[in-house]
Amino acid sequence: MKQVVKKQQQFFYSGKTLDISFRKKQLQKLRNILTENEDEIYTALAEDFQKPLFESFATELLVLYQEIDHLLANIDHWAKTKKVKSSFLNFPSKSYIKPQPYGVVLVIAPWNYPVQLALNPAVGAIASGNTVILKPSENAPHTSELLAKLINNNFDSGFFHAVEGDAKTTQSLLSEPLDYIFFTGSTHVGKIIMKLAADQLTPLTLELGGKSPAIVDTSADLSLAAKRIAWGKFINAGQTCVSPDYVYVHASMHMQLCRLIQKEIRGFYGDDPSQSDDFARIINDKHFSRLTNLINPNKVFYGGNTDAESRYIEPTIMTQVSWDDPVMQEEIFGPILPILPFDYLDEIISTLQNKSKPLALYLFSTDKNNQKKVMRNLQFGGGCINDTVAHLGNTELPFGGIGNSGFGGYHGKTSFDTFTHSKSIMKKSNWLDIPLRYPPYKGNLKWLKKLTKFL
């Protein structure tokens, strides 16, 4: 790890990444590599957790292609030195802000979207002029191996290098003098990463998770809400950090929404989702066991079937659930959807204000007052009104958490800003040197106070 980091430091200080044309060339190269190896990527994702072909393209590659294209179209503008007004106290002078890369960036990727969530922050770091060490997730071993091969066989290791391994490998990397750390994963591991980063005062971004709610009020288009909630929840078998973790629906529509979501599940995956090519599997035995323990058979409205050998968990709806149930104690991160009734929106807002701030929130409502009330009074990373998950597809929208769901953001311009230090510079002229600021100060204070009236 020492050699990997040292080599990247040397490459960065060579100045090559400061050249905008170099950055654009590397981004285009990566895009071409992904395009040329799409079939291999699909195979690796299917081997890791039977990810459907459509989801592999839409949620892994298409998002990356859009991000790279957006960065390529805007780097020149974003990287320009920007002139700002100078202070009267510093007359005569010029002031400007120069975007500057941090240096060596470590990207620690998760397993649930093992291509997109590995490379999306990496391309932002590259666009900003950094070198990148990528640590893919060992929990998606086939995808990790493929990413390492594609990166390490095509890029200078001093510029872009993938390191495979487990938690010990990550810890070893974190002990080196890095310039920036970007981590996507659980809140528990995020706290560990932050403590290790603190030892060297390394700046970082944490993209974590949490229990992201969907709220359905009486004004909602219930059929459309059911379809969009079911899609956002069960895509990637619920293994999505911004999937609706649970639903609050007005009590008068509780059973109706349950039946409509059940209908959508059957429409998406058939009467037996285990036979569907469009439904993914759980990533490993550990997560399968954790999820099956969250299913209370007495509270299952629909679904609940599992198969340990194939790591299959049927899309499951649970009712009669309270905050005391195990399924409400942690982020579910699987195809289990608790649906809870409520009587008054204000009570739900009060309840959620006393919970950890989620990464996402989804409101289904056509009532503008309710929309305003929820958006104003609840804190969350990002979200949608009358949809789920889809906000991630807009490169103009920053993506990131708040509180326990993380801090910092990325996507589009926000990625460039995240991996860039804004260097402030004042250029002072030599033709005039006002003596007011120099000692001895006797008599200078009254003149300084008079000058401040003009500032």
From TrEMBL:
The keyword Oxidoreductase applies. One of its GO terms (biological process) is aldehyde metabolic process. It holds the Pfam family Aldedh. The active site is at E207, C241. Keywords: NAD, Oxidoreductase. SUPFAM superfamilies: ALDH-like (SSF53720). GO terms for molecular function: aldehyde dehydrogenase (NAD+) activity. Residues 4-425 form the Aldehyde dehydrogenase domain. Belongs to the aldehyde dehydrogenase family. This is Aldehyde dehydrogenase.
